[in-house]
Amino acid sequence: MTSGATPHSETLERAVQAIEDRSYWSAYPEHPKAYGEEAPDEGEAAFHALLGNPFETDQMHDGHRDVAESSPFGIELGITYPSTDVATVIGAATEAMRSWGSASTDDRAEVCLEILDRLSIQSFTMANAVMHTTGQSFLMAFQAGGPHALDRGLEAVAYTYREQKRLPDPLRWEKPQGKRPPIIIEKRWITRPRGVAVLIGVSTFPTWNGYPGIFASLAAGNPVVVKPHPGTILPLALVVRTAREVLRDAGYDPNVLQLLVDTPDAPVAKDLVMRTEVGIVDYTGGSLFGDWLEQNVTHADVYTEKAGVNSVILDSVRDLGSVFRNLSVSMTMYSGQMCTTPQNIFIPAGGVVVDGATVPYDDVVTGFVTAIEGLLSDDARAAAILGAIKGAETLARIDEATSLGTVLCTSRAVENSEFPDATVRTPTIVEVDGSSDAYRKEVFGPVIFVVKTTSTSESVALAKAVALESGAITWLAYATDELTQESIIDAAVDAGVSVAFNLTGGLFVNQSAAYSDFHVTGGNPAGNASLTDPAFVARRFIVVGVRLEPGS
Amino acid sequence: MTSGATPHSETLERAVQAIEDRSYWSAYPEHPKAYGEEAPDEGEAAFHALLGNPFETDQMHDGHRDVAESSPFGIELGITYPSTDVATVIGAATEAMRSWGSASTDDRAEVCLEILDRLSIQSFTMANAVMHTTGQSFLMAFQAGGPHALDRGLEAVAYTYREQKRLPDPLRWEKPQGKRPPIIIEKRWITRPRGVAVLIGVSTFPTWNGYPGIFASLAAGNPVVVKPHPGTILPLALVVRTAREVLRDAGYDPNVLQLLVDTPDAPVAKDLVMRTEVGIVDYTGGSLFGDWLEQNVTHADVYTEKAGVNSVILDSVRDLGSVFRNLSVSMTMYSGQMCTTPQNIFIPAGGVVVDGATVPYDDVVTGFVTAIEGLLSDDARAAAILGAIKGAETLARIDEATSLGTVLCTSRAVENSEFPDATVRTPTIVEVDGSSDAYRKEVFGPVIFVVKTTSTSESVALAKAVALESGAITWLAYATDELTQESIIDAAVDAGVSVAFNLTGGLFVNQSAAYSDFHVTGGNPAGNASLTDPAFVARRFIVVGVRLEPGS
Predict the structure, then answer these.
(1) Which residues of B touch A187 (CB under 8 A)?
(2) For B293-301, what is the mean pLDDT?
C-alpha cells in the first residue's frame, strides 16, 4: 500500500487496469458460496422483513405511498415507499451537489466503492429483491443483480475516475519567446459536475442496467435522482438506502442519491427530466419513451438503451448438437426478457453445412425446436431457466405470436413448485419467410422466430436491415470459414451490432462481461450510448481552466 | 524511428504526449520568418491569383456560383465556387465513408497530418485569405488562421487517435471456472465512423474554429461536408482543395472532404443537417442558429460554440499601468470580434487597491479609457491592432451602443493607408451601473462596457449571472490576495468559465493554447462542447465487439 492508499484504492487501481487491458477480472464473487453459509438465509430473511412494510430511505417525504410493484412469482410484495415530488428532490439534489461536486475525485471514488462493497454484502437480499420484482430465476437474480451489476458499477467508476485524473495539476506552462524571456503561466484545471443526474430504471435488470449511469454520475460529482420503473422498485430502493447510509457515514449530504417513485397512472419522469437543473439522463427501457427522451431532452445529455432485435445467423457448424445446446439456453433463459436475447434465428432453405456435409433445412429446424422442447420438458428445470414473465403485455405477446407464422412450438404454462402463482411459460416458436414483417420488430419476451432465407447472404442482409430499422445489441453467428465470418463482421460493423461466433460452450451470447465487452454500440436504434466507454463518462463533468501569471 | 514509423508518426506521437502533459508545444512555426524569404510574396501572389476567378476543388458541380463573400478591407474578391447541392454531397460523402471508414486508424491519422503539413506550407496564402475575408490584421490572420489553427487540428487528431488506439486487439479472454476448464474467448474490437459529419463555418475564425471538428471527424473515419459561412468562404475552400489533393494522392476517395457553399438568401445548413445520414455537426457562430441545432438535430451529435459575454473583474493589482497595457490590447485586438474578447470590465465604486493603496474609481476608469485611446491614437498602429469590421450588423452595433450608457469614448473611423476602403473603427466605451441590462448580453464587436459595481463581490456575482444567462468563455480577473482569487475561481467553476488572473505581460486572455487550454467548457450557454477534450472526440466513432469461441 502506498502512503496515499485508502481502503478501496487498490481495488480502484485494479479496475482501471482492467478497463485498459480488458481481460477477465471481477471484484465481487459470482459464486453464492463465497458469501458464507449464513448469507442465503439472512438475505431471504432480510427480504421478507421488507414485505408489507413501509420502505425507509431516510429522505424527506410526506408519508409512504402505495405503488404498482408486483412479483412475477406471484408473491404479495405490499411494500410502500417514501412519497415525495419532483420539486423536492430537485431542490435537495441541487443543494447536495455543492459539497459532493467539490469533493475530490479520489474521495468520491472511495465513497462509490464503499457503496458497492456494502451492496455486495447484501447480495442475497438483493437477489431476492431482483428475483421477486423482475421474474429472474434466483441464480440469475443473484449474479446479474448482484456481483455482475456491481462490476458494471465499478467499471463506470474506473472510467470516470480515469478521465478526471488525466489533467496534470498544477502545471507551469512555459512558451519560449526567442531572445526575450519566456511567457510563464501557472495552470490548474478544476473538474465540476454537469448537473443533476436522473436514472430512469428498467423493469427487468434494474441494477445491472442502472449502476453504470448511477456510478458514473456519482463519481463525476453529480447528485442522482433514481426513478425506478413503477413495476420494479425494490432493488433500486435498496441501492438508494445503502448509498445514503454510506454518504452519511462519510460526512456527505445523503441527498446525493434520492429515490423518486411513481405509478403508471401518474408518471413523473417527463416532469423530472424537463427540469432545467437536470444535466444527465440515463434510461433503459422501451423505445417509445427512449425516443421521446432523445428528441425532447435537449438541455441535458441523454444516454439510452432501448429495444432491439437480436439475431442468430446459422451458416455452418462443426457439430449441431453443441450449437443447439448453447442456443436453446441463450434463447430461453429468463424467457427472452434480456436485452441481449436472440429473437430471430436465420436458417438458409438450402440447409446448414455440418462438418462438411449439408443437413437439410427441415432437419435443422426440427433439431432446434426439439432441443428447446427437450431442455424445457421438465418443469423444475424449465422453471429454473425461464424464471417468470414480467408484465401483462409480455404475456399477451406469447399467444399473439401464434398468428405471426407457422407455429413450430406452442407455449405451455410451467408449474413452479415453490411459487405456485408464478407466471411461467415456455416460448412460442414460429417459422416465417424472410419476406415476413413479423420478425423485423422487437417482440419482447419468449417468442422465437425461425426465419427461412434463400441463403446465408440473405440471412446476413436481413439481420442487418432489421438491426438498422429496429436496433440490435447482439448477433450470434455460426460460420466455420473465415470469408463468411468476415462478411458477417462487415455487416455487423455497418449495423453497429456486436457479434459472437460459434458459441457452443459455457459462454452465452446474452452475457456481456464488465471491463471487457461494450454493451450497446450506440450505432443503431437499440440505444445511443455504450456501457461503459469513455463517451459514456466524459461529458458527466466539465473542466474549468485557471491561468495565473506568476509574481503578479 | 521504429519499424512501423511513417513520415508523420513522430509528430503524432509528440502531439499525443502534448495532450497528456499539456505543456507548451507547437508543430507549426508561428513566426512568419520561419517559412523562408520567398514565402510572403508567393503567398500574396497565390492569393491574388484566386481573386475574380472560379475556385476549383475538383468535386462534382454544375458550374460555379456567385456568393456573398466580401472583404472588410474593401478589396474586391469576386471568387466563384463550385455549385452543388445537399443530395449530391450527402450521396458522395456516404460513398466515400465506405473506404475511409474502414481504413486503419494509423493510415487516417497519417493522411490528416499530411493535410495539415500541406496547409502549413500555404500559410501565407491562407493568411491573405483569412485576412481579406474576416478582417483580421495580417499577423493575426497568419498566426491564428495558420499555425495556431493547424495546432488545434493536430490536437484533435491526437485525441481521436488516442481514443481509437485504446483497445487491445486482438485479446484472448479467459474466465476461470473453478475446477472445470476456463471459458476462453478471442476478442477483437472494430471502430467505425458515426456518420457523415457537417462543419458549419464561422465568419471570423474559419480555420481555428473549424479544424478541431474537421480533423476529429476525419481521424475517426467520418467524411466531412464543409459548409462555410456565406461571407467567409475562401479559407475553408482552400482547406477542402488541399485535403482533396492529399486524399487523392494517398489513394482515397477525395469526397471524404467536400465543400458546399450557400448564400444568405438561400441557406442550406438546415436541409443539410436534417439529413438522416448526418451523424455529427460542428458549429461555431451565433446563438440563434446554434440553439436551433441543439434543439432540433436530435439524430446527430451536435458540438457548438455560440455567443458569450466575457468579463474582466478588477479588484486589486500591483501596478495599474501594466494592467491597462495588457487590457487595452486584449479588449481591442481584432475589434472585439474574438469569442474570447472581454466585453465587460467590472470596477467597484470604491476603487481598486493598487499595491496596498486605493485608487479611486474615477481615476481607474480614466486610466483605462486613456490607455485604450492612447494605444489607438496612431492610425497605423490602430489599424494593425483593430483589423477591420466584419459584417454590417457589427458596424451598426458600434453606434447603437452609445445609447446604452454614459459614453466614455466615442468610436472613430481609422484610416488604413494600405486598404483605403477598409472598415476600421475604434471601440465605443460606455459606462453602466451593475443594474443595467445592456451589458448582460453579447454586443459583438468593438463595444466595451465599464460596469460600476458596489464591490468586488457584486462584480463577481454579476459576471457569474451574465455567464449563466448569456454564456461566457473567458474571465480575466485582477486580484492580489488568495482569498479573493479563490472566491473568483469558485464563481468561475459555478459559471463554467475559464479564468485567468493578473495578466500583465505577453499573454492575453483572448489566447487559448493548443494542447494545453480547453476552449469553451460546455458548462454555460456559450457552447456545449470543448475544443478539444475526450468528450469532443469519443462519440465520433463507435466500437463493435467481435467474440469468437476458439477451435469451433
Answers:
(1) 22, 516-517
(2) 97
Q: Which three cell numbers stand for residue B375?
A: 494605444
From chain A, pick out residues whose CB is under 8 angstroms from the CB of B163: 534
Task: Tell which A residues from 101 to 120 touch B, by Cβ distance under 8 Å.
Answer: none
The pLDDT tens digits for A41-92 are 999 999 999 999 999 999 999 999 999 999 999 999 999 999 999 999 999 9
Touching check for A503 and chain B: CB below 8 Å? Answer: yes
Contacts of B108 (CB under 8 A, 6+ apart): B100, B218, B219, B220, B221
Q: Which of A518, A542, A546 sits opposite B489 (nearest CB)?
A: A546
Query: What are the structural domains, with CATH classification, of chain A?
Result: 18-171+191-306 (3.40.605.10), 310-501 (3.40.309.10)
**How far is Cα B164 from Cα B4, in angstroms, rounded to an integer?**
17
Cell of B330: 486584449
- Whether the CB of A267 is below 8 Å from some CB of chain B: the reply is no
Long-range contacts of B31-35 (CB under 8 A, 24+ apart): B31/A178, B32/B124, B32/B139, B32/B142, B35/B123, B35/B124
Interchain CB distance below 8 Å, B492 and A183:
no
Q: List the single residue in A with minimal CA-CA distance to B30.
A: A177
Tell me what ipTM this predicted complex has: 0.96
Query: Any chain B CB within 8 A of the CB of A168?
Result: yes
Of the candidates A294, A502, A530, the beta carbon closest to that of B543 is on A530
Q: Which amino acid is at A285?
A: G
DSSP category for residue B261: -
CB B356 within 8 A of CB B391: no
HEC secondary structure over A410-469: CCCECCCCCCCCCCCECCEEEEEECCCCHHHCCCCCCEEEEEEECCHHHHHHHHHHHHHH
**A501 at interface of B, judged by CB pairs closer than 8 A:** yes
- Round to whole Å and give the CA distance between B194 and B230: 27
The 3-state DSSP class for residue B251 equals coil
